[in-house]
Write a structure and sequence with these properties.
The chain is mainly beta. Helices cover about 5% and strands about 35% of the residues.
C-alpha cells in the first residue's frame, strides 16, 4: 500500500514543554540530555489494515515489522507467555527515537467488527509514564527516562464504512498500587495472554520479574462484550481477516515509520530517506545500534511447549519500501531494520546486528517484498510471513 495515502489523516500530537527538571536515578537511565525537561504527549497509533480501511479519532497508520512464534498445538494461540528484556537508552540516543512504541498482541473476536475480528496491541511506551489511555485508542504520556508503561487498545473495523477505531482500551495498572505498572529499562518481564473458564475475554498479565510487580487487563468491552482469541492454533494462515499480512494470530511488533514521542517534531509519520523535516530514525540502522535492544528471550505455550519455528513479516515489504523512497538501499536513513538471533544473550533482537549476533536471516531481505498471499478480500492481497528458524 502506498504510505502517502494516509498522510491526509490528522495526527493529534500535543507537545507541552515546562521548566520542571527530572531527577533521573543513575541506575535507570544514562540519557542525561533528555532529563532536562518534562514533555507531555497525546498520540494514537492504530493497527495497519487493508487499503480500504480508514482511521478515526486522529489516529494514524504505521509500519509493523513483526515476529511470530509458531506452533501446531491446539490452544497455542489462546495461552502463551512472552519473556522479554526491555531496551535501554544509549548515552545520547533514547530508545523511542526510532519509534514511539512496541507491542505484543493478537487477533480477537468482536461481533461488531469486520469479519468478526479485532486486534489487540499491548503497547509499551519507552521513556514514558502513562497518564491515561483514551477510549479512542490513544495514550497520554509524560517523559520519564528509563520508564516503561503500557495501554491495551483493541482495534476494530466497522462493517459499514470501513473505519478503524478502538473497541477497548485500558491502562496496564499495578495490582498493588492501582496506578500504572511502572517497568524500567533492562527489566525482564513476562506477558501472559490467556483465557479462563469464565469466557470473559482475553486476560493479559504482565509481570516484572526484576521487581516482582504485576498487572492484569481483561478484554471485556462495555459495548462489544468479551473479546476472545480469534483462533486456537498459533500457525501461519490463522491471520487477522482485515490485516495486510498473512501471519500467525499472535506477534510482537516494533512500530516504525514515526518519529519518537519526544523528538522535534514529535510523533509524526515519516518514511525512509527522510533525514530532515522530520528525521526518520526508524530507517537508520546505525541509530538502532546506539542503544541496548529489546531482547526476546522466548515464548512458552500453555501446555509447556515452546515454538517449533519463528517467522517474520513486514506490512510494507521491507527492502521494497526503502527502495520506493531512497536512491539506493544503505544510504543514510535508507535501511530497513531486521530481526536477528544473538548467541551471547540467547535472544532474538530487532534493529540490526548488535554485538553477539550470530544469525541475521538475510537482514532486511528476511521480509517478503510482495503481496503474494491471500486474504478474505482476494488473492495476492497480503505479505507472506517468512519462517526464519
Amino acid at each position: 500500500m502506498d504510505r502517502l495515502k494516509h498522510l491526509h489523516v490528522r495526527l493529534l500530537a500535543t507537545l507541552c514543554i515546562t521548566g520542571f527538571l527530572f531527577a533521573v536515578p543513575q541506575q535507570r537511565s544514562s540519557l542525561a540530555v533528555h532529563a532536562a525537561s518534562s514533555t507531555a504527549q497525546s498520540l494514537c497509533i492504530a493497527h495497519h489494515p487493508q487499503d480500504f480501511v480508514w482511521y478515526t479519532h486522529s489516529c494514524t497508520g504505521h509500519d509493523e515489522p513483526e515476529i511470530d512464534p509458531l506452533s501446531n498445538n491446539p490452544g497455542s494461540a489462546q495461552n502463551l507467555t512472552w519473556t522479554v528484556v526491555l531496551p535501554t537508552n544509549g548515552a545520547s540516543t533514547p530508545v523511542d527515537s526510532v519509534g514511539p512504541t512496541f507491542w505484543i498482541g493478537g487477533a480477537v473476536t468482536d461481533p461488531n467488527s469486520l469479519v468478526g475480528q479485532a486486534f489487540l496491541e499491548l503497547q509499551f511506551y519507552p521513556n514514558s509514564l502513562v497518564k491515561g489511555c483514551s477510549s479512542g485508542g490513544g495514550y497520554n504520556v509524560v517523559q520519564d527516562p528509563g520508564v516503561y508503561t503500557a495501554c491495551s487498545p483493541v482495534w476494530e473495523v466497522s462493517k459499514k464504512g470501513s473505519s478503524e477505531s478502538a473497541a477497548f482500551n485500558a491502562m496496564l495498572t499495578d495490582n498493588a498500587s492501582g496506578g500504572p505498572l511502572v517497568m524500567h529499562a533492562g527489566d525482564t518481564i513476562t506477558d501472559h495472554q490467556f483465557i479462563t473458564a469464565a469466557q470473559d475475554g482475553m486476560h493479559i498479565t504482565v509481570t516484572d520479574l526484576t521487581t516482582g510487580r504485576s498487572g492484569t487487563i481483561v478484554l471485556n468491552s462495555k459495548i462489544d462484550g468479551p473479546l476472545m482469541p480469534a483462533f486456537s492454533v498459533q500457525k501461519l494462515g490463522n491471520a487477522l481477516g482485515w490485516g495486510i499480512v498473512d501471519d500467525a494470530p499472535n506477534s510482537l511488533v516494533w512500530e516504525i515509520g514515526h518519529t519518537g514521542n519526544y523528538t522535534q517534531p514529535a510523533g509524526q509519520y515519516c518514511v525512509p530517506g527522510s533525514a530532515t523535516k522530520p528525521p526518520c530514525y526508524s530507517y537508520d540502522v546505525p541509530t538502532w545500534l546506539k542503544f541496548q535492544p529489546l531482547q526476546i528471550k522466548g515464548v512458552t505455550f500453555g501446555d509447556g511447549s515452546t515454538p517449533s519455528h519463528w517467522s517474520v513479516v513486514s506490512d510494507f515489504g521491507g527492502v521494497a519500501e526503502v527502495n520506493q523512497y531512497c536512491p539506493r538501499y544503505g544510504a543514510p536513513f535508507c535501511y530497513y531494520p531486521w530481526y536477528a538471533y544473538n548467541s551471547q544473550s540467547k535472544t532474538f533482537t530487532y534493529g540490526g546486528d548488535y554485538p553477539g549476533t550470530t544469525k541475521d536471516f538475510g537482514q532486511a531481505l528476511q521480509f517478503d517484498q510482495n503481496t503474494n498471499c491471500p486474504s478474505p478480500f482476494g488473492p495476492n492481497t497480503t505479505y507472506c510471513s517468512t519462517v526464519i528458524q
